[in-house]
Amino acid sequence: MRTAAAPPRRPPCSQPLLRSTHRTAPPSSAVGAVPAPARPGSVRAAGIRAMLRPELAASYTELSEDVERVSENPTDEGEGEMGVDEDTSSAILPDSELGTSAPSLRFSKTCLKNVFSVILLFIYLLLMAVAVFLVYQTISDFREKLKHPVMSVSYKEVSLYDAPGIAFYPGKAQLLSCKHHYYDHILPLINPGQPGEIDCTTQRINYTDPFTNQTMKYALIVQGPRDVKKKELVFLQFHLNGTDQDFNAIDYLLFSSFQEFVNSPEKAEFMKDCESSYSSWKFSGGFRTWVKMSLVKTKEEDGRETVEFKQETSVVNYIDQRTKLRNDQLFFVVFEWKDPFIQTVQDIITANPWNTIALLCGIFLALFKAADFAKLSVKWMIKIRKRHLKRKSQVMNHIS
What we know:
Number of strands: 12
Largest sheet: 7 strands, mixed
Strand content: 25-35%
Radius of gyration: 57 Å
Shape: rod-shaped
Structural class: alpha+beta
Oligomer: single chain
């Protein structure tokens, strides 16, 4: 078996010298002195420096990488790399770039972000305040609308009305004539003050006064006009003899349906209820009173429906051409429908609970969203502040 020849042994003192020959000598600008002639002590010092240079280069490289992350500027990265490549073993760092340009730029960006975040936070707080006010205002308006319903008026057009009932309280006066006319065509009176034709449906009834329950009242019930398109009207003539009153007038009352009065089994009670529910008016002697009626139906909160009449009256002086002594007073009255519209009045509550609930849901959603945005902004500001302080402390530690 062959034995390998052992490699030749080198002198022990030659190993540090060979290791130092493979390293690059530091630049003259960093050391600042001319290398001295080789001596035994200098050879040992050169070996020690050659061993320390990789550690210094690694520490400066880490410091340059930290500076590059803080500055986040590609130009500064290039300059830092060039500085490290040019002089790795040098102890001098680019303090001007690290302390002035990169931190100032970073500070300005951070300051702008913080100011912007504060502005956003105030905007969100303002939105939240507005939303809270809208919630309060919406609830207040809803409660106010519940307490004060709005009157709604609607009109229904008809061609025929239910014939109303006209209750006259003539007292001592006497009905002379009653006739239906059409198209506002009233013929001249032939014998004024004398009994004439009565072609109206009439009924007479006695009943006790609903307010005193003692006084008996006499009423003459006449069927009113019905056809509104033909302008149907009812013309009546009364006269009153030898009165001792200074002012002569006849009371009358309008109720909604003459047919209900005819079909009522208790006509006296029916008239008492009408007098309690409807208003009464007057027309005077010596004039022709023209009454134009309009019907108003009102729906109560409990579901009942009440009916009342609105009137427009015009009074025209009657020229009495009778030659005899006149101890009696003449009364003329005309009843006509004003228009073919029945007015319906009802109280409605304009506050819609579903609209209010939807509005409140939208407001609360905006509140929660604004609170979420504000929370995220605060967290972001805190995170940016901590990161800035951490990087600042790292840079100061590396510099120190």
